[in-house]
Amino acid sequence: MKVVIGADHGGFELKEFIKTIIPAMGYEVTDAGNHVYDAKDDYPDFAIAAAKTVAEGKAERGIIICGSGVGASIAANKIKGVRAGLCHDTYSARQGVEHDNMNVLCLGARVVGIEVAAELVKSFLNAKFTGEERHTRRLNKVLALEK
Hints:
Layout: E1 2-7, H1 12-21, E2 28-31, H2 43-55, E3 61-66, H3 70-76, E4 84-86, H4 90-100, E5 104-108, H5 114-126, H6 133-143
Parallel strand pairs: 1-2, 1-3, 3-5, 4-5
C-alpha cells in the first residue's frame, strides 16, 4: 500500500519520525511536504497536497500532521474523495477505517506523543474497511453529498 504524509511546522518533527516507521511496516511512503522546517509555513498547503494525492489514487492512505490536527482535518475533508479523521486513540484510528472507510489520518503533534502517534499509525494502516452492509449504507449516504 502507498501512503502519503504531509505536515506543517507544527508536525514536521513527528512527520520525519513517522516516515521512518512506515516502510518497516511494509508500506511505501511519499512525502507531500514540507520538506524542510519552516516556522512560517501554512498547514493547508501540505494538508491539501496530501489529500489530493489520496483523492487522485496516487496513494491509498494519507497521514497529515499539524499542531492540533484540527486544521489538517478541516482542510483535507474539503477534497472530494477524502475521508479524514482526527484521532487520539487506537480504537478511533482502527474503527474509522473499518466502519467509515477513513482514508486519511490526521494527528496533532502537540497533542499526541511520539509513541502514541506510532501506535495510531499502525492501527490506521493495518485496518481494513469491513464492507458490511450497514457500514456501506452509511458511507454511501456521506458519499452522496459529494455529487
